[in-house]
Design a protein that fits this description.
Elements (H helix, E strand, L loop, with lengths): L1 H16 L14 H10 L3 E11 L2 E12 L8 E7 L2 E10 L6 H13 L4 E3 L4 E7 L2 E7 L3 E8 H31 L5
Antiparallel strand pairs: 1-2, 2-3, 3-4, 4-8, 5-6, 6-7, 7-8
């Protein structure tokens, strides 16, 4: 019995060490204020911020993104840190295409060395590789002109997507009601 408890404690410790925490940030836990402090400490600078665009001119007031440059990551063009309900739920890293650097392969080898074999590999026009860690997921995508690395807290990301859908539906209903009022008032021919 003691052996089993020690084994479980060891496995938990190993899993905790391999849980992705970019720059020490905990997705689903770290607040915007904590994240901004870490970005500043790491030498990054905020270059843009705003609400997530759902479609066209419709934005989600519940999801805020912070665009960052200057983080100490080789070849990194930019990063966007996404917050829902004040918690960090997603980080997008963008690496521009460089046919001589092999960014995708370098990142893939680094992630595989750190986290082991990926849980899913999709090959095609866009190569997509995923590592799943329960509530957290890392996705590495190779597109024609860029490589994208995403760290994501899956449950919070799903809630953020649901929030987007609710905002969109409310906006769509308001638009429909406005059109009906215009039609009955004789504004629409």
């Amino acid at each position: 019995m003691k052996f089993l408890l020690l084994l479980l404690a060891f496995v938990s410790l190993v899993m905790a060490q391999n849980t992705p925490e970019p720059f020490g940030l905990k997705l689903g836990v770290s607040t915007k204020e904590e994240t901004l402090q870490v970005i500043k400490k790491e030498g990054g600078r905020v270059v843009d911020s705003g609400y997530r665009i759902i479609k066209g001119d419709i934005v989600s007031p519940n999801i805020e993104g912070v665009g960052v440059k200057g983080l100490p990551v080789d070849g990194l063009q930019s990063a966007t840190f996404w917050f829902f309900e004040g918690k960090l739920f997603k980080i997008d890293y963008i690496f521009p295409f460089n046919m001589y650097s092999g960014d995708f392969e370098v990142l893939y080898k680094h992630l595989k060395l750190k986290y082991g074999d990926p849980t899913q590999v999709s090959r095609g026009i866009d190569e997509n590789i995923e590592w799943d860690f329960g509530e957290l997921r890392i996705t590495l995508t190779d597109r024609f002109f860029e490589t994208i690395l995403i760290y994501e807290h899956v449950p919070l990301s799903k809630r953020a997507d649901q929030s987007d859908q609710e905002v969109f539906k409310k906006r769509d209903l308001k638009t429909q009601k406005r059109l009906i009022v215009y039609y009955w008032a004789g504004y629409v021919s």
